[in-house]
Predict the 3D structure of the following.
Amino acid sequence: MQQQDGPDVTLEEVRQSLGQALAEGGSRLLLRLTDEELAVLTSAAEGDRSIAASPHLEGMSAQEREWVLATALRSLVSRDLIEIANTAALDTALKGLNESAQVEIDMRLSPDLDLALTLRKTAERILTLEQTTSSGTAYAYVYVHGADLLLVEEVTGGGMHTFTLVVSASEAAEMARRLVDPNGVADVDGPLMELDPRALEVEVVGQPLKNVIENALVVGQLILVTRVPGPLLMTYATAAELWMVNVDAPHAPTGVTARRVGQQTLADRIGEMLEFSA
């Protein structure tokens, strides 16, 4: 499939324009997409490699994927998110009348969809988040384009992706904090514990962290994806408290700490990760 190009506008010009608009109007929801709709769109964009999870698609067979992707393309058209230039070729492809031919579909994206996909694949750094509970795993990705321009992609366990333009790192950090602490149990800051990076198994970390890990109801994992290995943050929320384990850099001999934290300290640490400079 081929994606029709729009006017020649540099990425920096887009960032500046969006930053100004967000400063005036505040953060805003862009759109919602399904796993299969995103799969159609990313396959249409040559060289697009997304790190985002697709939990709904991952359990499907190749045949099932083929069926749902065809339906997803129709959904994108019906929702006016894409416009197909060669509709006759699309009809032929969807009806299976030209299975042996390679059908190219020319598509034009809606402005919000084009913006979301562009910011998704051109971020300077990405904060990935996994939230694991007894109900399953949800995900979030914060695509950082500057102090006043971030794209947050939240992914449910059922494969629904919500894209939000966010005006500041502190607001994005608060969104991430609510995901790892959905029940609001982070209350007070405790003393800092230095941990030995060579001995981080649950059996040897010692109390009270061992007890928190074993009784966690919500486990969060936040990793900063950047040019050089960035910091890692693990969170463990029980029914009464939340602890975070911070790793400054992978494989470093020091820089691993743990502590019980309140909401503001947790949000501040996530904000520091978003502002991390390699």
Observations:
- The chain has a mean pLDDT of 86.
- The longest strand covers residues 136-146.
- The chain has two domains: 2-117, 168-274.
